[in-house]
What does this fold into?
Amino acid sequence: MKILVVKFGGTSVADPERIGNAAKKIAREIENGFHVVAVVSAMAGVTNQLTDYCKAFGDTTKNRDFDAVLASGEQVTAGLMALALQQMGVKARSCQSWQIPIRSSADYSDARITNVEAEKLLSILQSDTVPVVTGFQGVTPEGDLTTLGRGGSDTSAVALAAVLNAVRCDIYTDVDGVYTCDPRLVKQAQKLKTVSYEEMLEMAALGAKVLHPRSVALGMKFGVPIQVLSSFEAGVGSDVPGTVITTEDSMIEEHIISGITLSRNEAKLTLAQVPDKPGIAAAVCQPIADAGVQVDMIVQSASADGKTTDMTLSVPRGDLKRAVEALRKVKDFEKLEIKTAEDIAKLSLAGIGVRNNPKVPATMFKTLSEIGVNIHAISTSEVRISVLIDEASGEKAAQALHKVFIGE
Amino acid sequence: MKILVVKFGGTSVADPERIGNAAKKIAREIENGFHVVAVVSAMAGVTNQLTDYCKAFGDTTKNRDFDAVLASGEQVTAGLMALALQQMGVKARSCQSWQIPIRSSADYSDARITNVEAEKLLSILQSDTVPVVTGFQGVTPEGDLTTLGRGGSDTSAVALAAVLNAVRCDIYTDVDGVYTCDPRLVKQAQKLKTVSYEEMLEMAALGAKVLHPRSVALGMKFGVPIQVLSSFEAGVGSDVPGTVITTEDSMIEEHIISGITLSRNEAKLTLAQVPDKPGIAAAVCQPIADAGVQVDMIVQSASADGKTTDMTLSVPRGDLKRAVEALRKVKDFEKLEIKTAEDIAKLSLAGIGVRNNPKVPATMFKTLSEIGVNIHAISTSEVRISVLIDEASGEKAAQALHKVFIGE
It folds into this structure.
């Protein structure tokens, strides 16, 4: 049995007409010889509407009944999609998480999938019926509904593909693939045919909002090829490729750099004349982490006098105030001079070339220097280099890097 | 444990504010010493919205996935009600039919409750927690969601009250009780304090839309007192009584006639010169029944010549055309003269006095005669007399009967 998992996001199932269009894509993949499992999100706007209802009753975070309310959204889409397929003569039935079951932890609103039973789904597929599965949700061993948090529906789809040993997991969304850069920023941005899990993880973490890192990480763990493609264009994943996220080995082409991302959602805080002693970085970062703020980059200047150092940290812009407050509460830092800046951005290169080609960082820094862009901080990973720069320079810097690393 | 089941209909939970008000009533009944089980409908308008979505995909009657879509409505309300109670400091949790479970037949859109497990609900109640149960739905032994059709949520509530041996089942709705007559028709209409199951069944069947006969029949079977009261007035069922539907024996007062109903939803068809032979009534009624039309009253005139007779039938007005077409398809009736009339109404008296007091029918007919109302047909049951009259006379006839049997 050649199994294909297809997932449709909220905008792809926003109304009955779009659900009908999505159903046609499923029918087409069946004609292509696949046994199809469909995974659906709630209709666009529904989850927000339900969340608003819940907010009328105070703080509903990590609440069992909040999750029970939210889970209804995918239930509706799954039923409608099954009806749409039936109308086209395709056998289909909606499957809610508890009916399969898709087991999860009891971390309400942020549950983790712990197990997916394949047996029922396989038996449905064997009867040439499309199981239309509610994404974004699970059921605890005690029989309580949960939701999976951000990126949940994509994660559901990839998990099903993994358990069912599917050929591929196609994520239908409102963009037609993963681009080398945001086309609004660099008009020469190119759609990638393939990208490795590692690169995609870095790009997702850097703000390319196509796929949540969680679903990419799951795909990597189980070796599930994930394709991102548009539900608003003609054709289906087997005919008209979007971008396939897969292992490096199976990539047909190899970009040195797959993507350039610019994140404007950054802020910087600089601590002047911090005592330069072992453990100081931890002493600074711990209270910020305790306040729930993720520190991204840390730069510690060389100490001139051997006694104090300047330290620069970057945090998400919305968390800047909280980070400063957290530091102020630490006795040692009460009188510390803290400078903050919100007019900065993070510019990143992602690609396996970062690891394989030592010239990449040097070329990057040289390119930025040539156009007069000052680098405030640098961080790197296996397949990524990020620099903190002035937000005002972001666009021209991204364009310059795109020209050098990817092409015009 | 003194258990009270309270059920809130769609208009009573139409938005978060009303859900909050309903939650206050639950909290008040807990203060009154009850362990409360709440049963909720979908928020007003939601079921229609979901039905409209489904209709985009053709005929969805008796469809498993149509039911899965519809069942989401009560799931949302149950979760919101649990959140509302929690905000007030009352322990609560939503319970969907499959979580209890409430078992039903697999007759989608019109399923029958086959079994309710009490164990889980009792354990929730014992921990001083309010189970907020989704009305209107069940789950089949195979684990598929069903909906219970018209009157479903009331039926769910009464079934739970029966299984849990509840003190009473309070149905909060948009009217404050059961009246002797529609107050728009007879301004002297009085609210009944009590009414027997049998009377309520007749009144419900006659068009008093307060309670579906199905829930009344279930209450009668298990001896569950059912109270109808308004959710839009201050106070709760234990303090401010609405109308209690109960056994005749436990009724405090005894009306001869509890209610007068006028149904305008009637039509009449008269077959002239039907052969007067045994089995003719069946021969006429069978094709109409086969067309899904319920024949209400049948009057057969005395045969003058011993060979033919005139026969008059009443059917719901919307089914008249279908009934005539069904008759026309019968070979023996192809050339039969069929007269139809839609300007008629059914006027009914319901009350245990019909059985106990032989003067009731005579008084009814005399009253109508005195005001010049002609009777086209008569039918009776244990606790009801109905007559078919011209619709134009309906209002004055109802008022006259109310004056005579109930008072001014």
